[in-house]
């Protein structure tokens, strides 16, 4: 696994999550329950190895998060390209925290009329665009050194393979697991 | 003096024609004052929120025709004034029709057809005989269509910048063009 460092916000999330899980498990024990017959051996089970991978913080993340935070729509303002909705800002923050080390550059961010967040990642080899709405993130990207059709994918909010989806997308664009855009082999 | 090109509204659009998407200044996000500028065209320029047809201007038969451009600039400026918050017209993202349609064998497929706009009552500059529509047959989502469209314009097209006084991108102004025409006319007159 390439990226295994855990940032402080993740430790806090993990701790909260573990505490909730532990108290829920204690509440749900029924002392009078009979033993459940073990029929698992008869089922065709396949066990997949599950690996948890955390992103490595990158130098630009704090600045971009601050820009997002400073652009959240105040209650007294109307939606416009100048402001982000709280939902879009939250989706974008989650996207960036979870995948920042896979992304090819510091993003330039824009707003849409509806308050969605558009993040543009630009290198001399490729362009990648992500659009964060309240429902998820749309990714669009292409390489400059070929004439092929751009790639696009939509990742729904709450998808449990969010990081893997982004990794597959960036790798298809020729970005390595440290966010470095690689020269094309051809 | 050659006349300005008058496209026939019912004739198909030529694949060598140059079509342009109008670019207006869009406000930035409030929190991005310290953001490094990458010179990327906002995807908002390519969105058509109320209509699946994307509005374009036909700017010339094979290259951008200065007379057509000059004719269109006041119409574009008028459109800028009609937004809820007035916007400044900055120019066009321009592409050849053949680079816009059927770029890839797969989706999305774009079609371009002429759709001239007639004058609205007595309002000056409300007509546009160079108006065209681009239609994407496969993409229903306007953001998705806008991403593809911006990609095509940025990758295979060019930017035609116009400043407030109607300057052309090569630095000549409408006034310069007027004096150049006058000089040409004078030379011809003297040569007679």
Descriptive notes:
- The complex is a heterodimer of chains A (186) and B (192).
- Chain A is of the alpha+beta class and 186 residues long.
- Chain A has a domain at 57-177.
- Chain A has four helices and five strands; from the N terminus they run αααβββββα.
- Chain A has a five-stranded antiparallel sheet.
- In chain A, strand 3 and strand 4 (136-143) form a beta hairpin.
- In chain A, helix 2 packs antiparallel against helix 3.
- Chain A starts with 7 loop residues before the first helix and ends in a 14-residue tail after the last helix.
- Chain B is α+β, with helices and mostly antiparallel strands.
- Chain B has a domain at 18-25 and 40-161.
- Chain B has four helices and six strands.
- In chain B, strands 4-5-2-1-3-6 form a six-stranded antiparallel sheet, with helices on both faces.
- Chain B is globular, with a radius of gyration of 18 Å.
- Chains A and B meet through helix 2, strand 1, strand 2, strand 3 and strand 4 of A and helix 3 of B.
Concise synopsis of the structure shown:
Chain A is of the alpha+beta class and 186 residues long. Chain A has 4 helices and 5 strands; from the N terminus they run αααβββββα.
Structural topology:
The complex is a heterodimer of chains A (186) and B (192).
Chain A: H1 8-27, H2 61-70, H3 86-99, E1 108-111, E2 117-122, E3 126-132, E4 136-143, E5 151-156, H4 162-172
Antiparallel strand pairs in A: 1-2, 2-3, 3-4, 4-5
Helix pairs in contact in A: 2-3
Chain B: E1 18-24, E2 53-60, H1 66-82, E3 89-96, H2 97-100, E4 110-114, E5 131-136, H3 142-156, E6 158-161, H4 174-191
Antiparallel strand pairs in B: 1-2, 1-3, 2-5, 3-6, 4-5
């Amino acid at each position: 696994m390439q990226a295994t460092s855990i940032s402080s916000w993740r430790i806090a999330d993990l701790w909260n999550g573990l505490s909730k899980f532990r108290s829920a498990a204690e509440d749900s024990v029924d002392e009078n329950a009979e033993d459940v017959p073990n029929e698992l051996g008869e089922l065709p089970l396949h066990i997949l190895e599950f690996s948890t991978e955390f992103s490595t913080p990158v130098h630009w993340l704090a600045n971009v998060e601050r820009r997002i935070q400073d652009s959240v729509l105040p209650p007294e303002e109307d939606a416009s390209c100048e402001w982000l909705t709280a939902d879009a800002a939250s989706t974008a923050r989650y996207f960036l925290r979870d995948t920042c080390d896979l992304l090819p550059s510091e993003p330039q961010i824009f707003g849409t009329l509806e308050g969605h967040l558009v993040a543009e990642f630009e290198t001399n080899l490729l362009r990648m665009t992500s659009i964060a709405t309240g429902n998820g993130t749309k990714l669009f990207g292409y390489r400059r050194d070929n004439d092929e059709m751009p790639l696009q994918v939509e990742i729904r909010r709450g998808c449990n393979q969010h990081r893997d989806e982004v990794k597959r997308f960036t790798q298809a664009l020729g970005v390595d697991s440290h966010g470095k855009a690689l020269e094309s082999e051809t | 003096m050659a006349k300005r090109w008058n496209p026939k509204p019912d004739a198909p659009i030529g694949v060598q024609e140059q079509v342009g998407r109008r670019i207006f200044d869009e406000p930035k996000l409030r929190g991005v004052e310290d953001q490094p500028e990458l010179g990327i065209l906002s995807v908002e320029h390519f969105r058509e929120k109320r209509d699946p047809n994307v509005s374009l201007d036909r700017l010339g038969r094979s290259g951008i025709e200065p007379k057509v451009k000059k004719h269109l600039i006041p119409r574009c400026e008028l459109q800028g004034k009609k937004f809820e918050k007035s916007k400044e017209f900055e120019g066009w993202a321009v592409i050849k029709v053949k680079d816009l349609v059927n770029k890839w064998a797969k989706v999305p497929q774009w079609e371009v057809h002429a759709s001239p706009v007639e004058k609205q009552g007595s309002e000056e500059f409300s007509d546009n005989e160079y108006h065209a529509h681009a239609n994407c047959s496969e993409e229903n989502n306007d953001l998705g269509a806008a991403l593809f469209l911006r990609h095509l314009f940025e990758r295979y097209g060019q930017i035609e910048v116009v400043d407030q006084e109607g300057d052309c991108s090569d630095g000549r102004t409408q006034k310069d063009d007027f004096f150049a025409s006058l000089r040409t006319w004078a030379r011809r007159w003297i040569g007679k």
